[in-house]
Amino acid sequence: DADNPNHVYKLKKALYGLKQAPRAWYGMLSSFLLSQDFSKGSVDPTLFIRRNGNDLLLMSMMGKISFFFGLQISQNPRGIFINQSKYAIESLKKYGFESCDPVDTPMARPTEKHVHAVKRIFRYLRGTVNRGLSYQKDSSVALTAFADADHAGFQDTRRSTSGSVQFLGERLISWSSKRQ
């Protein structure tokens, strides 16, 4: 503020993209739904239910889903395949890499010049636009998770690293790796 250069202002909202934004959105949505006579599900607190006597909610199948939150979804008798090839192709076009030669790994020989590294990443993306997740109908739906961490394993800073992977049957659905 030009009139008050020595003042600090406290923002009473969550900014889009910050890590607290999803929690703030859920809090606002939850408060609104509860004020509209919805109740939270007993098993899943993100599921909201509203009963209105003996009324029925009629639903209809609008067709097979093909796009959902930027994901392409293909269904066939054997299962479901999910990828982001449309998004990858749009990114390649946006930065002028739609006709580059693909490579197998994102950075097999990294250099100090970041521009070359970025070009290599786009070439990797070009070669992997049709890769995705495949969930077969006959596969297990058991949810399995693995996690591991070390204590002060990074020699220079003595920082720790943790990681986890989650599988639905044999298919990886979520993963993380973080230096603490």
UniProtKB/TrEMBL annotation:
Originating species: Tanacetum cinerariifolium
Domain spans labelled Reverse transcriptase Ty1/copia-type: 4-60
Signal peptide (residue range): none
Residue runs in coiled coils: none
Protein's name according to its UniProt entry: Reverse transcriptase Ty1/copia-type domain-containing protein
Pfam families for the chain: RVT_2
InterPro entries membership: RVT_2
